[in-house]
Amino acid sequence: MKITTTLWKRGVLSFLALLAGVAMLEAQTISADETSACENDPVVLKAEGFASSVKAIDWLRSTDGTNWTTVRSTSGNVGTFVDDMPGMAVRYKAKDQNSATITNTVTVTLSTNCAAICHTTSTGDYFSGTDFDPESGVTTPTPAIPSEVVNYFEENDITLISQNSTYEVTTDLSSQFGSYVPSLDEGGNSNYYYMYTNPPSSSQPFEYRFKCSTYVGKHYRYTMRFYLLKKSDNCGGSAKIKLETGHGNQTTDRATLDIYDDAADVKMKSLDITETFGSTDLNIGGSDYANKLLRVEITYYGYFPDDKYDPNSGTYNGLQYFTLKPLFQQFDGCFALAIDYISAEIESVCMNRGAVCVGESAVVNAAGFPKDAIYKWEKKNADGSWSILNIGGFDMVGSQWSNISIPVTSVGKSDYRVSDENDNTVVIPFTVTGKDCDPI
Fold first, then answer.
1. How confident is the model at residue 400 (pLDDT cuts 50, 70, 90)?
2. By C-alpha distance, which of 90, 94, 82 is closest to 108?
3. DSSP assignment, residue 87?
4. What is the per-residue DSSP string for 219-248?
5. What is the pLDDT of residues 35-78, one digit of tens each?
6. Do the beta carbons of residue 129 and residue 155 sit within 8 Å?
7. What is the largest CA-CA distance in the chain?
8. CA 13, 15, 18, 22: dihedral to nearest 10 degrees?
9. pTM tops 0.90
10. How far is CA 91 from CA 45, 58, 95, 100, 302, in A?
11. Is 359 helix (H, G, I), strand (E, B) or coil?
12. 61, 309, 395, 418: which is deepest, by most CB within 10 A?
């Protein structure tokens, strides 16, 4: 370390001044809030110990320890720099902008134990499942489910198993649906569908497995959007849909089912099912539903029970997995059927990975909460207490606030949480990180 000091006095004073200079320079350090991070997760670095005369701090980054690049400058002698983790281990150091003296080096390794993030279907819906987009390089019209389609179930430790062999994954529905094209596809062939190539009759297209040791005592939500074409007036009157659970019917679950005239975007039928699951009769046998593209949106809300859970074996009543199976019943040759997307999640929050620019907003979605949830969003204060989050003059408490946009006003991390006001035993904490995106 090279120190330049003007010795204007001799003896003890000059010696003390020299020691002070050494201490001042050695105190220039940086630290990171994490030693390991997932790709695109925010890494918050802080610089301390710089002399009060320092006007700006340069931040340097390297992925090999040899080649360094200045990636940000922060004003003042105490700086906070937020970086998005690259796809490999990374090193950081800092320096006074007007000095060659370098701080210590901090290394952040790449983690693969990563939380689920928000995903969006081709038609703009948040989901945690599959939109049936084939994996890169897969060209077969019958890709293996789930291995050959983009599948986010595994991010949440949910196993998807295909139960049907008469399907095609396609953007073109014309072989079964003629000239009808879903309106959410905006008149093009850009969205992939899981289309039955034969009438579905009575079939279970998929099975979902939730590990009991992970999901016991948690609420879940299962969502599916599919399209129906009823090809004549007087048929299809017995069509039903059901969700079978491997753990039985001892929990009281709920479902909502909406049927739309897709072209007109008019809701033709809405069902709110509050009894323990059984078969739900669609009641679409009349002529009103014929020769129309019907969009069906169904959501099941349920609970994985804990009354017979054995923590020693991680099983519920001897079961290693809770299972869900959607079942189409008595869908005869009258129907063409294509599934747009499927999604399953438990109580959680999802948000885009990475820091958010100061002045913008972080979009946060609460997933898997019960049907009648009253969402309560809170922010942690500087003294450690919590207060109701207020955005734009509105307290974020209510059934309508399943997703919110949180304004980001400062660099660094802010802690939040969301819960169901009906059941405060489930509290989901999360963090929003702000970064400076102004040009260097």
1. very high
2. 90
3. S
4. EEEEEEEEEEEE-SSS--TT-EEEEEETT-
5. 999 999 999 999 999 998 999 999 999 999 999 999 999 999 98
6. no
7. 108
8. -130
9. no
10. 11, 14, 14, 18, 46
11. coil
12. 418
Nearest partner of 358 among 425, 409, 295, 421, judged by Cα: 409
Question: What is the structure's pLDDT at 204?
Answer: 87
19 pLDDT band (50/70/90 cuts)?
Answer: very low
The span from the CA of 82 to the CA of 108, in Å, is 13
- Span between the terminal Cα atoms of the chain, in Å: 28
Taking the alpha carbons of 366, 369, 375, 379 in that order, is the dihedral positive or negative? Answer: negative
Structure-token pair, residue 45: 């670095």
The DSSP letter of residue 154 is G
Q: Does 307 or 424 have the greater pLDDT score?
A: 307
Dihedral sign (CA 153, 363, 189, 242): positive
For 168-207, where are the alpha helices, taking DSSP H only? 174-177
Q: CA-CA distance, 225 to 185, in Å (whole number)?
A: 13
Distance CA 135, CA 365 (A): 26
Per mean pLDDT, which range of 12-26, 147-161, 345-359 is the poorest?
Answer: 12-26
- Give, in order, the Cα–Cα distances in Å from 33 to each of 41, 47, 56, 89, 129: 12, 12, 21, 15, 31
H or E stretch covering 22 = helix 12-26
- The amino acid occupying position 235 is C
Q: Which of 132, 153, 130 is nearest to 214 (CA)?
A: 153
Instruction: Give the whole-number percent of the chain exceeding pLDDT 70.
Output: 90
Q: Where are the beta strands (DSSP E) in 347-398?
A: 348-351, 356-357, 361-367, 375-380, 386-388, 390-391, 394-395, 397-398
Question: Which one-letter DSSP state was computed for residue 199?
Answer: -
The first and second tokens of residue 230, run together, are 């009823």
| pLDDT over threshold 90, residue 21 | no
**Which two tokens mark 128?**
């945690």
DSSP, residue by residue, 137-148? T---SS--TTTT
The structure tokens listed for 424 are 């405060």
Phi-psi region of 11 (alpha: psi -120 to 50; beta: other; left: phi over 0): left
Whose tokens are 């054995």? That residue is 310
